[in-house]
Amino acid sequence: MTQLVWNGLFVGSFYALIALGYSMVYGIIKLLNFAHGDIYMLGAFVGFAMLTSVGVIPASMSITALLIVLLLCMVVTGGIGVGIEYLAYRPLRNSPRLAVLITAVGASFTLEYGVSAVAGPNPKVFPVRLEGDSFTVLGARISVPQIVLMVIAVLLMLGLNAYIQRTSMGRAMRAIALDTKGSLLMGINVNKVITWTFFIGSALAGAAGVMAGAYYGKIDFLMGFIIGLKAFTAAVIGGIGNIKGAMLGGLLLGLLEAFGSQWLGGEWRDVFTFGVLIAFLTLKPTGLLGERVTERV
Amino acid sequence: MSDNVDTTRAPRRIGKPASRISRLFESRQLGWAAFAIAVLFPFVLASNYAMSIGTTAVIFILLASGLNIVVGYCGLLDLGYIAFMAVGAYTSGIIAKAWELPILFTIPAVVIMCILAGLIIGGPTLRLRSDYLAIVTLGFGEIIRLTANNLAITGGPSGIYGIPGVDLFGLDLSGPVPFYYFCVAVVALMVLGSARLGKSRLGRAWRFVREDEDAAEAMGIHTYKVKLAAYIFGAIWGGIGGVLFAAHLSAISPQSFVFLQSALVLMAVVLGGMGNTRGVVVGAVVISLLPEFLRDMGNLRYVIFGVVLVAVMVLRPQGFWPSRAYEPEKLDEARKGKRDGGPRPGAPVTTAKGGTP
Amino acid sequence: MKLRIPKALAVGAVAAAMLATTTGCGGILGGGGSSSSADTGPIKIAAVIPLSGSSAPTGVYMKNGMQMAVDEINAKGGVLGRQLSLDLEDGACDPTQAAAAANKAVSNGALISVGGYCSGATLPTLPIFNKANIPMIIPAANSQELVNQKLPNVFMINGTGTQQAAAAVKFMVKDGVKSVALVDDNTSYSKDIATETKKDLASDGSVKVALSTSVTAGESDYSSAVHDIMGANPDMLYWTGYYQEGGLIINQLKAAGFKGKIMVADGSVDPSLVKIAGSANAEGVFATMTQTPDTIKGAETWIANYNKKFSSAPGPYSTQSYDAVRVAAEAITQAKGTKGADVIKALEGINGFQIFSGPLKFTPEHTLSSGGFQILVVQGGKFVLKDALS
């Protein structure tokens, strides 16, 4: 029981990190960034490339090396996210949503198969592996790497929250989410803020990718697809556009999945997850923490 | 394939008069020309291989024209369209195998199942905003595939095999060339049907809903019912495509109904030109044959697909061969300058004027 | 609208039927078809194998094995005085692509087929080759569904899922395992072995199935399956899927403190399994596997030749693919021609032809009489022979 809860929370923290990017972008420009899950994959591959090019890393240095790579990867994936926004989404800022969504699907394809063309279709083994002892708390087996990753995830989320709440850029983001035109009139550089939003969202997803690579040890070019869908589901559960909602939704989805596959059997887990998504969208489209959205399309 | 001159167009055309090339492209004879090409194709190349990819392409045209009803006419982004094809293929496969029926006799059941699937998927979701709808359809597509993978009646992961070929009044049409012609005949009729649907009263309502749902509702269109109708028609087209697919391959498995396939059908519709049957047919032929020509390029072809998709949306969002009826409106909009995203109240009025019978 | 369709449909159908009969009977226009395969010139051997997609690495092993056999036979003067030529078509492990590839092979004038790796993608190719009356010798794909089709032209020289399950059960009993957890990845190949193993265990009775579950392929986190396995606490886990997920499950199981034994099926026998699981975790993992070059006695020269020719080591299904070509050549020699029916008869009559798994004789179901499955174990990061089960 406690084991299930812990498993759920651990997986859920990955979902939450990715869901944040979805939610931020959606909250600010109402775009469903379909390629977001692939940024997660890209993060893992960028980390892989960096670590492989460095060569052999002594075991004692692996955590330090990993943290450095994590930060570098966040910068790189953040930059790629900005690039995608600039090339694929910005020209369509005033187009119908259908067009932008299709562009997002195209961007997702380009990233997935671009990586597969460059790195090859075979799964890759991550060069650095987080290993560590594990111990039992309240009947749940918890390992040190899991705790390290959870702490990193929580720190990233707290940092993001502080950024959104305390800085002027964060305030600008919230203002744009409320009223784009109004913020423009108040002298906010909307394009710059959107660029930053993409940068932060993509950086978080990239961080999640590196963490997944280091923890699970295997990465492949399609790893972002399903987790992207799951993260979207998490964002919807929490209330899309709401930062705290994304975190809550991620953890909740992790728990739901852990218990869902326990009750229904592993092969029905994804059916269960998507069922939850559909149920939420039909019954409570605003999610748990979302505000009423009056705008219609 | 058929003529697609939109009679709903406002009588007063805005913009330049059509050039000679445009007129050629609008010609009523084009559908016949395409049909003739399809019919004459085996006279040029009749190897099993050519027939096989020809048949696949023809089935793909059917799928694209079905998705065009949903995405092109009605503007509902469906990212799980292949699920309807799965429903059709599995229904016909299961029934044909269980009662040893000729596959054509399963079509009524397939149509019923597809209507049901359309209602089940569309019913709760069509009230959603468009981007939510996209994800929900994707989720449903995955649910259908996973369910087929998990259930015993659908043969689990190995699927259903040994599905009989087409047999028409004792005439065996399961050989490569006869089956190709059978598919061409069925698909030609279905494509004609979808083009006609686009021009019907319902089709005008669809376009109206696509352009401005609020205005459509204000004009007395029951938008929910109209959208559901689009969904159901799309489902039926997909289901028939599934029957042909099952008869063509003789074996179906969940692997054939992955998201990639939905995305490919969507690409055909978008590249060809949403809402224009001719464009969609051309798009479908290109998308289904291109992988065969790019066989040696492996995964790179999907990179190209992705880039083309983005490029088309950025540079020519209406597709290569869009429905002409909307160009005046586009010009109109351009003149008024760019507006903020979201509903555009002014633009659709021209359509509305023409669209009211 | 709806009312008008039937009439139009009928008209269209009649037109199509007329066209079909005229073209069909008029002798296929524009050439093509299997008629182009003359009785002289090279004998075309087709192989639909994955050359792109996630199974492409295995496809390369198979391709090299086939090429080696073809070159050897051609160097000795070919078959019936004719050279062999290999026609490789990419099936990409995708049913639609594989069907197109099989049709392409038939159109190219193939006389015999030696391909087939992914069972799901091989299934739709069977009727295509059957209709063209082309014998198929399947080197790798081994789902029971292929046997269940009961097509006369299909021969399998890899052990079937049933045989693999039997070998697994035999080893479990021999090893004194009392309870076992069966985990599959919900693909055709994997589920087949799991189901057959469960059946065999039920009839044997001495080993209890503590858990039987499926996971979704292509994910990273298998903690819920691991949780289930830890809860069931079996003596042995039998993973019937591929190495990508197998490596992760082994890794996560060991991290969770699993003390039981672990066995994997032949889809997981790959060096990457050890890398993904971590070499310490993979140590002592058993596997049910048909012969690989490494485990065959007296195959050293063959391996050396392979290394020299392709400057890489042979891998899974290199030997079976090599054998498939040799069996094809043998059957054509015995049939004294390439006519499908004669070659099929010759294949059925083969008795004692030496292949890697031993003297060849097909059962009435066209499978190997014994699958040739043996038990491997990971030692020092490599799969080595543990028990030949004979």
TrEMBL record, chain A:
TM annotation in the entry: 6-27, 39-57, 63-86, 98-120, 140-164, 193-215, 221-240, 247-265, 271-290
Compartment(s): Cell membrane
InterPro entries for the chain: ABC_transp_permease, BCAA_transport_permease
Membrane topology listed for this record: Multi-pass membrane protein
Keyword flag Transport: yes
Coiled-coil intervals, chain numbering: none
Domain of life, per lineage: Bacteria
Keywords: Amino-acid transport, Cell inner membrane, Cell membrane, Membrane, Transmembrane, Transmembrane helix, Transport
Keyword Transport: yes
PANTHER family associated with the record: BRANCHED-CHAIN AMINO ACID TRANSPORT SYSTEM PERMEASE PROTEIN LIVH, HIGH-AFFINITY BRANCHED-CHAIN AMINO ACID TRANSPORT SYSTEM PERMEASE PROTEIN LIVH
Family classification: Belongs to the binding-protein-dependent transport system permease family. LivHM subfamily.
UniProt name for this protein: Branched-chain amino acid ABC transporter permease
Automatic annotation (TrEMBL), chain B:
Biased composition annotated in UniProt, kind: Basic and acidic residues: 331-342
Any Pfam family matching the protein: BPD_transp_2
Keywords: Cell membrane, Membrane, Transmembrane, Transmembrane helix
Primary residence: membrane
Segments for region (Disordered): 331-357
Alphabetized InterPro entries for the sequence: ABC_transp_permease, LivM-like
Residue ranges crossing the lipid bilayer per the database entry: 30-51, 57-90, 102-123, 179-198, 228-251, 263-290, 302-321
Compartments where located: Cell membrane
Topology of the protein relative to the lipid bilayer: Multi-pass membrane protein
Name of the protein this chain belongs to: Branched-chain amino acid ABC transporter permease
Species of provenance: Arthrobacter silviterrae
